[in-house]
Amino acid sequence: MVFYFQARPEDGDYTIFMGIDKHENEELIKYGFPEDIWFHVDKMSSAHVYLRLPKGRTFDDIPEGVLEDCAQLVKANSIQGNKINDVDVVYTPWQNLKKTASMDVGQVGFHNPRMVRTVKVEKRINEIINRLNRTKVERNPDFKAEREAVNAAERSERKQQFREKKRREELERLEREKQSELRSYKNLMVAEKMTSNKEIASTTKSLQELEEDFM
Hints:
With 215 residues, the protein is of the alpha+beta class. It is built from five helices and nine strands; from the N terminus they run ββαββαββββαβαα. Strand 3 (36-41) and strand 4 form a beta hairpin. It is elongated, with a radius of gyration of 35 Å. InterPro entries: Jlp2/Ccd25, NFACT_RNA-bd.
């Protein structure tokens, strides 16, 4: 089971979600989306909270309010972290999560530690937690099917982009051939015109010759 929350609407269409236990976390780790940002209390046990970014958004432009929502939710779902102040919450893109066979269920590392950021949560803000809980929805998604559907859609989009690229290249090739033919035709016309002028000059009598004919 996965819990879904709606971040503050004034910041845009952001969905926050987390697994109910470490086994759900394994599925989320395995079948995440490139748009997902992972949150966890640093050096403590906590829920794995994810933020799904809208298309076109990046890790660098998460609104401050949305970031606070995620950090507060992680802190509230940490047995130890919920009891103390000044808690560090780390977050990183899903693609930066590293999972090896030797790791315990729900445990992760990072491919690139420099892509991990930290936000400090001074204290729990009940107003934020209560607002998020009012949007809470429980679902039982098929993570694998969702990931495969996204992969299929991405493959289809890439194929369409490839076909469109080939179509543009073919149109450009035909246009180049057309322009080349036009240039060749113009050159031919110029050459024929020059030849005709020379022939006229060679066959036409000069003014002096015409005058001599009348004398």
